[in-house]
Every structure is written in structure tokens, then in C-alpha cells.
Amino acid sequence: MSGIDALNEQLSGLQDAAVKAFAAAADPAALEQLRVSYLGKKGALTEVLKGVGKLPPEDRPVIGQKVNAVKQALADAWQATSEKLESEAVSLRIEAERVDVTLAGRRRDSGAMHPVHKGLQEMTAIFSQMGFSIAEGPEIEDEFHNFDALNIPLEHPARAMHDTFFLNDMSNEKGEPMLLRTHTSPVQIRAMQRCMEDGEPPLAIVAPGRVYRCDYDVTHSPMFHQVEVFKVDRNVSLAHLKGVLQHFLSAYFEKDVPIRLRPHYFPFTEPSAEVDIGCVFCKGSGCRICKNSGWLEVLGSGMIHPNVLASVGIDAEEYSGFAFGLGVERLVMLKHGIPDLRLFFENDVRFLRRMGA
Amino acid sequence: MKLPLSWLKEHTPLNAPVAEIADTLIRLGHEVEGVESPRADVKGVRVGQIQSMQPHPDADKLKLLKVDIGEAEPLVIVCGASNMGEGDKVPVATIGTSLPNGMKIKKGKIRGQTSFGMCCSEAELGLAEDAAGLLILPSDAPVGAEVGDYLELEEAVFDLSITPNRGDCMNARGIARDLAADADLPFSDVPCPDVSVDAGIASPAISVSAEDDCPLYMARRIEGVRVGDSPLWLQGRLLAAGQRPVNGVVDVLNYLMLDLGQPMHAFDAGTLKGGVCIRSATEGEAFAALDGRELKLSDGDLVVADSSSVLALAGIMGSLHSGVTEFTADILLESAFFRPARVSTTRRIYAMVSEASMRFERGVDPAMVAVAMQRATAMITELFGGKAGEVSISGAADSIQGGQSLSCSLKRLQTRLGVEIPASCDAVLSRMGFDVRRDGDRIDVTVPSYRHDISIPEDISEEYARVIGFDAIPATMPQLDITRPDIPDASIASAVADGFVQVITYAFIPRNEQRLFAEADGADIELANPLSDAMTVMRRSIWPGLLNIARHNLNRQQAGVALVEQGRTYVRTAGGHDENNLMAWLMTGEVQRDDWFAAARQADFFDLKGAVEAWLQNRGLSARFVADDKVRGLQPGQSAQVLVGRGIVGRIGKVDAGIADAFDIEVPVFVAEINLDALPEGKAPKFAPLAEFPGVERDLVFLFDRGTQAEDILQAVRKAGGRFLTEARIFDLYEGQGVSEGKISLGVRFMLQAADRTLTQEDSDAAMNAITEAIEKRFSATLRG
Ligand SMILES: [Zn+2]
Q1: Is the pLDDT of residue B132 over 90?
Q2: Spelled out in words, what is the top-level CATH class assigned to the domain A115-354?
Q3: Minimum Cα–Cα distance from B166: chain A residue
Q4: Does B189 map to a domain?
């Protein structure tokens, strides 16, 4: 047998053996070892090629082609096995890393904002965005700001209705007894006083805060929250009051709610009106909660009484204003269908988390 | 106030459906709290006439009646009463009727005799509290008619909530006048009757020394009265209006008060000594009030008195012994106008409320004082006999504010209401008793004597608003200046995002809970009239409130709670008081429950500290925590002051175990508070370029004496670390095996970095050496590795 034939046979045998061996490799390490043993510098192919130098020159191109073909076949076989092994490895890893996606996620109990606080913030934000400035005032007040300046003189029947908490041995600089404010309206007086110290109206204020009444039963809490809203300017009218109320109530309840103003009496406003909204539970058709009237009372309002303006030195001929006070708990109860005022102050975290979510 | 529709109809011919009348009342400002159909529960009770009456064969006290109720056959009824006779007309509850007391009438045998119904007393019909026998109806009562219809028991009764300014509407006449004016119906006053006066009866001697408080006083004697029960129709009226009949004279006066709005009082003239004076009480003067209380009066209280004692606190309440009873023969009848502010003040001082005082303090109609006197005299003498004397009068009706004239600008009224005021509204006001004249822009109004609430043009604008109807006023937006909008305080939001549940607790707490975290140093603010022992002082700390809420929730199977509250605390100061705005936190129980990935873990100091740090960081602030063993109520060794800059802004620590125990909390409780008023303004983040070159992270572990504070070590590190040190923190803490007693092993991890190049080995070695040297020098520390 000539040299070239023997070499050809050697190469074919090597190719067959290598392709078989590559295909049988169990893992990438074994495959690498085989690659080195066949294709490496000291590998089997190199060994065979040593025989090429002994061939006659005319045979060399022929064998060269054969060598290239064998090299290509080995590379292809290696490639195929390598890819197969790699994909097997990936599958194995994925299988090993498989998790139960239905197990609970790793997290902490969530916090929650108190629904009354949340309501207070929502309400304040609506007015703030309309252009009302936010103001606060003391909760421990004197009789002047809580009553007298608001046109509620001592002998006025409305004063007795306020169920006021008084404080022991506390008086202001004039010696008048101090009390826990029964409404946020004193902020109206304080804001107007501040305004008049270095200027004059217009004045548009929203004043959220805590208020106190000496009254405690299913529908009354001795501490609750109000938002006082008022505006003083030239030519402020009852129609403006209606406009602001309509805008606010629709914004707060996130839908167009019908409103109804009923003439009422408050010492600090004239004319005065109580404001009803169409019952949010029965859509006005009448139910137990609205006592079949289709309306729910939500707040008291009116045009600021000239005596109130006068008490802070604002000329009632030139200026007028509207004012109203929102009961925060009541509005929050209506918006979220909360049946019992006491839930707010019991502070059961299950309730708070549900409402604060 | 309850008013039957039939009563209103006596003043004006209302013909609208009840629901429509209710709507009109609401539009006019008279809140309708409900419309009742009373006595619907006596349906089936009919007028019956007793045809025959025989004794029950087996029972001495029972009788067998045959009663005609207009059916073909009379009913056989067994009856235990004895006040009736043959021919009497009585109410008969037929089979199937349910009575107001809950009794259901069934066919039944009574001692062997079948009874086909029941004859009723007033009590059984709900007309009186009790009764001695059957209700004998007038002889002209139609046999077979429903008793409810006959006695006008079935009708609409409006339950009205009259606002304090509308004293003129606390009666049928006033409400009817408003309704009539609105609907343009005729309105008629009951004519003031002529009263025949017996010249032989002396007019009473009256003297008024307090004319300011009593500008009009009338009194007259009626002698020889036989006080009996008032007639049924009158009792029915009172009951429908929610008042209990007392005796004939008192009932007449109550009826007229509800009809006209003028409260009157009747004294038993036989008990009086001398003339009547209306004066200020003397200091300490005794008064035995009708409600059983013995009062010591003060100077200024307005009283009606005879020569020996106080007969009444004027306009509020009579005395226990001077009132009219069924034995009274001679009456002194009083009708007056008492100044509203006087009645209100006195009533408030003695915590008294009466139907009379409610009307006097809102102001009665001066014009009705005489009318009521005449009508009362006529009714009493007609019903109960007796002869009336001449009226004694002090003062005059027209001396009392009335006929007041106001002048206002039409343009201004319209500007304030935001709507045109049509001239047609003037006619409605006229029907309400106003005299209205327009002249160009001027509107002149004369106010009727009964409208004490109207004194300024704004009051007139309200009258127009009522008449126009608030519904007809448009809703328009006012012009609001564009200003920088205030951002509502968002302190709570970041604490909530960190897992805390916000609570709101009362600002008043029990005194013993106040003492847990605040000394008895006179700075408490106490309520003068607390609702209960649990609400006696204004809180100086929010922690007691949070502890109570923690207990509440732990008792409801919460394994751990994290609470936050934002609110005020209240402290008495030399010059007055302070209200501080605080944030307060509480953490207790499990912060990590047993889970598939972790074991349960109880909250500790550092859970809460981390929360407070995160909350401050959210405001752009960082704090230092300085150990303080003397924070009241907190456990020494686990309590600290919180400092921002150089100022103390709050406190944090573990609640003393004894205190927690007092709140039934058995696991460690941690609390913190930050005074919002003490916090400096946080800094908005400023941009700085990010590091371009990689840093080097290095660790050093030292042995320190136990008690060495981390903050001190890190400070020393920062000082010695040189310009490349960007961060240093404690990454490991160990004591126990391998570390000798009294020592603690702390590992510090550093980041060294330069802005302009990668650091060399020499750079970092130099920094590490400097740090090691400084630590070993400053503390008795040794490098472990
Ligand atoms: Zn409803």
C-alpha cells in the first residue's frame, strides 16, 4: 500500500474514532480532554500529520485537502457535542433552581394611614389646589376666639349647645377662662386678625384641625376633626359659596354629587345654610341611612356675619365672605361606607390596614 | 317640636300633600326631622254604644255588655270596668286590633263567657298614662266610626327642629304663617275674644322693679274655678304635640303656648301673700323649684315674688308650692315678656330647661302677650267656670323692639346673594308680616314685632334667600388669587411607607398615665369638666395613648404592632401654654413572624432606631443618638436622646418593663418621639458627580473594652482615615467564646476612594495604618485581623 493510501486510511480512522469519542463525551471537561487529545499540539492529528512530510510532493496537495476535511469534521463534531452538553447543563441548572412560585413573597406587613388623617389631607389638598392657603390654630383657645368674636355672646343659646370642655386654672391675658376649641372657626378669627395686622383682604384660608365637644355616645366623639374654609374679598356671594361647595364635594367624592342648601341658623353666618348631598348609599331614592329623605347632611355654611368681620376690624360694607366647616369623620364615613364613628378611635390595626390600603 | 297638620290647618287652609308641605318647610329653613302618622295603631278601635249591661254569672267584678258598633248584631263583650252605664258611648277594640300597649285583641273566654272585643280606657288607647275606667266618649260620637278618626288621632305630625333664631316659629301660628305666606294662602288669627270682667274682683297689685328685664307684665285674677281635666280634643292636641296633660288650667296654658308661642303661668292665688313684684333676686335668696331643687339665687336673677317668697324664676320655672292644682279655686294668671338674654343667662346658671324658657330666651311676640291673656281667660272660665277680674299691666308692648325699620341697598343684597331679587319676593315677605317698600336701589323694610332675629340688612338677605329658595341661587366660582400653593404636611407618609400604622388617640388621658412619662411639676393642663376618669388631663406624651392601642391590638391576636401618631402635646407654661407638634412611634412584638424563609424575631431597639433614622433621612436630616439613662419611663441602658445638629429633637428607648406590664404587654416595647417644631428645615438633595474610579474596600477587626461606643470609634476612624476615606461602618460585632471577658470584638469596614485616580496599594496601606494607630491610641484596643 502506497504512503498516501495508508495516510488516508489513518486519517479516516482518526476521524471516525474522534467523532464517536466526541459524541460520547459525558461533560464539557471530558470533551475538552478529547479535543486536546485529538486536536491539541501533541494530539493524534498532529501525530498523523508527521507522515505528510514523507510523501512525494505531488501527493501533498491531495492529502492536504483530506486533512482539512478531517479537521472540519472534527470541529463540527466537537461543536455539536459542545452545544449539546451546554444546553444539557443549562437545563440541569434551571431544574435545580426551580422554585414554587406560589409560596408567599418575602415582605413586611404594610403600614396604613389613618382614614381620618387621609381624609383630612385629601380635603385640604383640594382646597389648597383651588388657591386656599393652609392655616392652623391652637386647640386650647380663649372664649373670645371660640365664641365672642364669632358672634356667640355668653347668653346665646348656641353657646350652651356647644358642650364645651373648660380647663382648670387657665386663663388668657385678660383673665378669661380657656377651653378646648369646639370648632375650627377660631382659626377664621386668628387668620383675619393676622391679615389685618399688615394688610387687608382678599383672604382665602383652609384650616384643618382637631376640635372637642363634651359629648360621648354612638354618634359623638369628644374629639373629632373639622376643616374650616373661608374667603373674604370684595363682592363674595352666596353663589360663590355654592360654587366652591359643589366643586369640593364632587372632587372629594370623585363623582358629581347633587347638593342642596337649606336655610339654617348659625350665629357666625348670615344667611346661613346647611348643606346636604344626595344620599351616596341609595342615590337619592331613600334608605335607612338618609331616613328615607334621599339627602344626607354634611356641613354648615353661610356668609360671614358682619359682626364677625367687625370683631377683627374688617369693613363689612366693603368686604364680604363665605365660610363653612366640614366634619371630617362624617365625610370619611360617607365616602367609605364606615358604619360606626367609634371605629376611628378604637384604632384596630385590622380596620386601619383595610381602610388605609 | 311636634305639630299636627290639623292644628296648622286651623290657621291656614293647607291643601298640598304632606310630603310637599314637608319640602316647603325644609326650604323655608324649618328642618323636618320626621313626619309621623301617630295612632295608626288604634285602627280597628270603633265608637260603640252600650245597649245593655248585665252582671257576669260567674264573676262579681265582671260585666257582660252588649255593644252596638253599627253592625247588624251587637257585640258581646266581657268588661271589668264599672264607670259606664247603658247608653254610654265607649271605644271598642274589635277582634284583630293591636293596641298601642302591644295588646292584641282576640276572641276569648273570660270566666266561661266569650268576649268579642274589648272596651278601652284612655290608657289602653295611649292617650293617658293611666286611667280609672273606660273612656266615655261624648254622646254625639257617631256609632261605628273609627275612634282614631273621630278624635283626630290619625294624621300627619311634623317633627320640626326650629333653629334658635326663629322663636316666632316655636308654635303652630308661626309655622302656619310661613307656610301661608309661601303658598299665598289666607292666614287667620284666632280672634281675640271679649272677656267679661267682674268688677268685684280686684285687679292684682303688681310692681315691676326690673323693667329692663321685664318690659311688659300682665296679671289677672280668676276666682271660683273648679279645675278639672281638660277636654279630650285638647288633651289629644297636647299628646300629638308630645306633651302630657297635667290639669285643666295647665293644659289650657300649654295649648295656647303651642298655638301662639306665648308661655303663661298660673299661680294658685290662695297661696299668695300680698301683691306680686317682678324684681331681681337678693343674693342667697331661697327658691324651691317645681323640679324639686332647692336653689340659692343670686343678685340679677329675675324673679316673680309675693311678699314672703319667690313664686317663680321669671320665664323659666315656677315654685313647688304656688302652682295650680285640682284643688285651686282662685288663680293668678301671668302673661309677660321677659328679656331673652336674662332668661338665657339664668337658665344656664341653674341648668334648667323648660318649654317656657326655650321660648322666652328666643324672644316671644310682644303683641301676643295680651292676646294670650284674653284667650286663656276665656277658655278657663268657659271650661272650668269662675269669674275674671281686670288685668293689671306694667309696661307696654310697643316699648319692645318691634316695628324696627331697616334700609338697605338692593344692589348690595343682590351682590351678597349672587342672584337677582325679583319684586315678587316682596309680596311673600309682606305676607310674612314685613312691610317692604322699594325706591330705586333702596329697600326699606319694617320688621314685624315677632322677628327678634332681624336687625341688619344681611338678615333681610336671608329672608330673600329663603323666599327665592337656595336652589334658585346659581353656583359660581369665586376668583381665587394664584399663589404658591401650600403643601399639606406629609410627615406621616414616610412612616407609613416604612410599615407603620397611623393611629389617632384622644388628647386627654388619665392622670396616672400622664405620670408615667411626665413629672408632677405643675405643667399638667386639667379638664374642668372631664367626661370620665379616663379623660382628665391633656397629654404631655403620646406614648400612653400608643401603649393602650398596642394592648388593644395585641389582645386581638396581632403578634406585633408598629404604630405611629402625629399630634399635639399640651404643657402649661409660666405665660400660658404650649402646644407641641409631635411624631410618636411604638414598636412591639414580632417584626418578623415565623415564615418559610425566616424564623420569628421580636422587635428591638435598633428596629425602631432604624425607622426613626429613615424617617429623618426622608426629610433630608440625619440624627445622632446619645445614650441617656434618665428618660422618664424608659429603661436605662436602652434609651437615648435624638439630636439633629446640636439640638435635642426627640427621645427613643425601651419602655420600662413595669410600665409595659401595667398595660398587660409582656414583650419588650419600644417607643420614640420627635418634636416637629424642633426640627430644622431639611436640605433638598444637591447633585454631586458619581465616582469614576473604583474604590478599595478594607476590613479591620479590633478588640475593645465592652462599653466602647460605636459612634466614638467611627468618629476616630473618620478623623484618622485621611482624604480617601469615603465610608466607614461597623460590619461585625462579637463577644463570647474566643473573646475574653469584658472585651468585645468589632469589625470596621472602610471604603477608600479617590476622585481622580485608582488608589495604589501604598495609599490604602497608609490609611489603614493611620486608622489602626489612632484606634489603638484612642481606645485600649488591639487589632485582631
Ligand atoms: Zn339613602
Answers
A1: no
A2: alpha beta
A3: A265
A4: no
